[in-house]
Write a structure and sequence with these properties.
The protein is mostly helical. The protein has one domain. Helices cover 56% and strands 5% of the residues. It has 3 helices and 2 strands. Strands 1-2 form a two-stranded parallel sheet. The longest helix has 33 residues. The protein is globular, with a radius of gyration of 14 Å.
Length: 88
């Protein structure tokens, strides 16, 4: 994805989708240059299991995972993410 982001620059918005279910996977996509990550499946599972409260719970879990991963990376915000944080 980093090569795609470099090739299109600011001309396009890069949205990725593909079954993202964990917060650290969302951070990886953002670090590699995605402008946004589609997380529709996880909230839909939450909706099916618990209605609106289930969606809130799933989104809360995702947020906590992302916050924890950012902390472990030493980042204070999403703006500090970049490809240098990804080990290939």
């Amino acid at each position: 994805m980093g090569q795609v982001a470099a090739a299109v620059g600011d001309r396009l918005t890069i949205l990725v989708d593909g079954g993202f279910r964990r917060g650290n996977d969302v951070l990886k996509a953002l670090a590699l240059g995605a402008d946004g990550v589609m997380i529709g499946r996880a909230p839909l599972y939450g909706l099916a299991a618990g209605g609106a409260a289930g969606v809130e719970h799933v989104l809360s879990l995702l947020r906590m995972e992302m916050e924890r991963a950012l902390t472990l990376l030493g980042c204070h915000s999403l703006d500090e993410l970049g490809p240098q944080l990804i080990r290939s």
